Amino acid sequence: MSSARSDGPELVVYDLDGVITRKDTFTALVAYRLFRSPLCLVRSVWTALTMPGESKASLSRRIAETALDGITDGEYTALAEQLGQKFASDPKWIRAEAVHRIRRQHAQGARIVIATASERRLAEALLEGARVPYDLLSASLLSSRANGLTVRDHRVGERKLAALLELGVSIEKAQFITDSLTDFPTAEASSSVVLIGASARTRERYREMGISITEES
Fold first, then answer.
1. CA–CA distance from 13 to each of 7, 33, 38, 108, 116 (Å)?
2. What is the pTM of this model?
3. 3-class SS of residue 216
4. What residues contact 135, with CB distance under 8 A and at least 6 apart?
5. Which of 39, 61, 170, 187 gets the highest tally of CB atoms within 10 A of its CB?
């Protein structure tokens, strides 16, 4: 592999949902499961209605685990691979300019890390299908339970940053690419921040919180 350009970053950390994709991958998998199980769909709606004070992250986790009732680890793997490949082949899902950016940086010698709150097997299938090169993937993990799967390690917010540090990523030297305010802890710890696909409100909030950003479409 060639060495990185003197004017380019040597370490680049990319968010997945909203940056490489235009939509949320794990949310789409959860919706796929819910709409194929009326009972699970009703239970998820009931969860949302009866827990108004629940944080967004906690509520999302409960709904996801409802959707994952009755599925085995092997069945989940097959579904994640199926949907990941499907999303990867859909131009409405993939942000082509971000994929080209990653390929170019990787070819120039940059180390590419994908850090996502999406589930690992789903992210792997999508990245493989979209031919996105990377050196390390940090993604959320599931575990088996009595009747389905549970979210064991949701790498979102502060946990995304902690997981990167646990994996030995020198985030203080990294260029970080995101679209989300949820990633503020990782953005704050990074050397530089690039926003791709971010809303005007998100861009403004990063500026208000003192984060110097570069914007790309």
1. 17, 30, 39, 15, 10
2. 0.88
3. strand
4. 106, 111, 112, 113
5. 187
